[in-house]
Amino acid sequence: MNEFDIYLRKLMEERNWRRLKRDLNELEPLQLAGVIENMSKSDEIFVFRLLLHERAKETFQLLSHDKQEEIIEGLATYSHIVTNLLNDLDPDDRTAFFEELPGEVSQRLVQMLSAEERKIATKLLGYPEDSIGRLMTPEYVAVKPYFTVVQALEHIRQFGRDSETLNVIYVVDDQWRLVDDIRIKEIILAPLEQRISEISDNRFVALNALDDQEVAIKVFRDHDRVALPVVDTDKTLLGIVTVDDVMDVAEEESTEDFHKFGAFQEAIINPVKAHISYLFRQRVFWLTALVFMNVFSGAAISFFEATIQQAVSLVFFLPLLIGSGGNAGSQSATLMIRAIAVGDVQMKDWFRLLGKELMVSFLLGCVMAVGVSLIAEFRAPEVLPVVALTMLLTVMAGSMIGLLLPFIFTRLKLDPATASAPLISCISDISGVLIYFSIATRLLHLP
Predict the structure, then answer these.
(1) The domain 276-443: what is its CATH number?
(2) What is the rounded distance in angstroms from the CA atom of residue 126 to the CA atom of residue 232?
(3) Which of 419, 407, 64, 415 is nearest to 212 (CA)?
(4) pLDDT higher than 60, residue 265
(5) Mean pLDDT, the chain, whole residue set
């Protein structure tokens, strides 16, 4: 607990409500959100009720979904406060909040909205999950091509107060089809009598409401925009998506891929708050599956039992060799999964990348073979050729596995992040055992 939290606690204990209310409302929304995130449930409800209307709205949008849900539950007895808060939230933030709630809770809260806001919320929630339609907000400013700059500026003053952003003004025809997007700077600097159509170039980048949210991440990155229009198949302007919402999605996607690469069923946003049974369910499937896959490693070792009995020194190098193959595979897979996710690599590139990875893994394998040879020279010189050649081949095999698995999963319409590090290591272990003892049997002329 920092000094300010202690100060707030002291004001609450002294029941100095006027001072507490004044000091809280002097904080920026981001600071307030940080204070509330660290409070107990009873304190956060009390503090939230002391916030001014606009400050409460801005602060609520910056809280985590868990904390938002706690506050809504805590304010259940103050239905008018909840109603006002939900009605005032930006539509895209409200949709993101509803998505995190159980279905029956979301439906109950939707019914508390005004008729106009309920219509907006229902429309946004009607788009497929993880679609761009769920991210967009209908709060934007659009002008007609035949407006003069004077008319456009007057229109912006009249309707721009509730707009999500005024950096870009959208141009639509009489059927509300998107014609252009113009930076506000261009309108401000244009002659007052000039028509909007005269400063339009009819070139714009738009998102489709039904596209996946990952498409929005790539388009924003490629075009460096603060907001992008969202249209339907007829190019009718439906809303806009802002870069802050896309950044939130990008963070969630990165978290999900990171956890999948660690062999979790799905992303675990906050392990501190997650229930033990939930954490167990997310981890048990892959770990159990990998246990049965590792049986094949044991079966391969038992198949070469006679070879091991004739050259016990081989066992010393076994963990080192198969571990190196798994590490090389994990490196390669991490590189490919990231490249596929951000669109730098397409499915058609797999063959060219295969040749490049083959060369890189050969060079890596040679360097690592020299390293393991130095160890073998002192530990067991009689198996030096075996461990050197095995190191080269296991590194190459692991790298190929790590490169190909993400492409295979993508071809099967599965998330390439599912080609997780433990899975790659397991496959590399099996192949490493087979390579190692096959080479040992051949080079050492063992049974």
Answers:
(1) 1.10.357.20
(2) 14
(3) 415
(4) no
(5) 80
